[in-house]
Write a structure and sequence with these properties.
Length: 236
């Protein structure tokens, strides 16, 4: 049932009950109107605050818009004492606020739902993702305002981690190039093996939490390729 329908039913109910009570106890019309108006005002403002003037978030991803959702950028990467310019491919989601109130204190997480058979990469606990573009204070403006969320990234340069990290891999040393875009991984990938993906399809869930308003989740398949340019994501 739609909120507007619920609101109408409540209003009619309040008027009916108040009117019946007024006739029963023989209240004069002035007292009846004052009582009815007070009750309706309370219901109206409660409804407005709960359903109308509140954030309404939506998670979007569109692979046909690469500049916005799957950009490829060359960014600095430390390699020992040297700093190299390394090509990265990013997977991003755009969070749109369709409501009439700003969503404040927004935090986004990614959680693993399913991974390839025999694969042990990317640990199962929810991980906080990094906002790529969001107003200061981590709020999303109302009426179509949006924020850009980093989901994952892949490097042209292979990162080698000592020791076999995944039962799915055949190499004695793990050759990793794809990570979830957590604040920790983007700063020091070699120390964030738990954020790394090996080759294969991973079912993940993106969830955005805010201080008020709706919590929104959406599932995706993250396709990780041996070729860094082919990292992509799509709905299940």
């Amino acid at each position: 049932m739609k909120p507007a329908t619920i609101f109408l039913i409540v209003v009619v109910g309040i008027i009916s009950v108040t009117l019946a009570y007024a006739f029963y106890v023989k209240l004069d019309i002035a007292v009846f109107l004052a009582t009815a108006i007070s009750a309706l005002a309370y219901v109206f403002f409660t409804y407005w605050d709960e359903y109308v003037a509140s954030p309404n978030l939506k998670i979007t991803f569109d692979v046909t818009k690469p500049a916005e959702y799957t950009p490829q950028l060359s960014i600095p990467l430390k390699d020992g004492l040297a700093t190299l310019m390394v090509n990265h491919r990013f997977i991003r989601a755009v969070i749109i606020n369709q409501g009439n109130r700003s969503a404040h204190g927004c935090v986004a997480k990614v959680q693993l739902l399913e991974r390839p058979k025999d694969c042990t990469m990317f640990s199962e606990e929810p991980k906080t993702l990094k906002w790529v573009d969001i107003p200061e204070g981590n709020y999303i403006p109302p009426s179509g305002g949006n924020a850009v969320l980093g989901v994952a990234f892949s490097l042209e340069k292979v990162l080698r981690m000592p020791g076999k990290r995944c039962a799915f891999q055949k190499d004695p040393d793990a050759s990793i190039r794809t990570f979830a875009l957590t604040p920790e991984a983007i700063q020091n990938m070699s120390m964030r093996a738990q954020d790394a993906f090996c080759t294969g399809n991973f079912k993940i869930r993106l969830t955005v939490y805010c201080e008020e308003g709706n919590t929104v989740s959406r599932d995706f398949i993250l396709e990780v390729s041996d070729e860094w340019q082919k990292l992509t994501m799509h709905p299940p």
